[in-house]
Amino acid sequence: MNIALYSGSFNPIHRGHTSLAGYLIEKQIVDEVWFVVSPCNPLKNQHHLLDEYLRLDMLILAIKGEPAFKACDVEFTMPLPSFTIDTLSKLSTDFPEHRFSLIIGSDNALVFDKWKNYNEILTNYPVFVYPRRGYNFADVVSLYPQMTLLETPFYDISSTQIRESIAQKKDVSQWLHPDVMDFIEENMLYQA
Asked: In what helix (H) or strand (E) does residue 33 lie, and over which residues does it extend?
């Protein structure tokens, strides 16, 4: 089975994340998308990061009823910080029957040389790149011609924007699964 790993903080997971995963399934690019919750991304500021188990709970709520989507907590038991090559290697060992690939945004593709053992990733795993506004696909192609560019829509929302909007008591219901919205409200998450 072809599995795309979609790693992220998912702080919180939103409809942009699930829409992108849905695109990969709908276009039959992969058979399943595994959302890998990263406890600690070495390239991101951890200041506003919720506990990984709360983020996993929201992820599970957001993808229920989607049989091709899976929540993956493999990095919870791995050394921190979380490096993608280590996650790919562990999952490839644990699930030798699957072929794993990686989904990243064009913003991450342009700093891919900062990733641990990035050449090993490019050699052993397909990398799919989705567009982010302000990050040129042509630049990605010139740096990493082996990456596959996806012609997905732009998903113009970020978890940062959602957190800021919740803190300002703005409505974000159009970007969140209703159960995720309820979970955030019940647990008073992202409040100012």
From this structure: strand 32-37
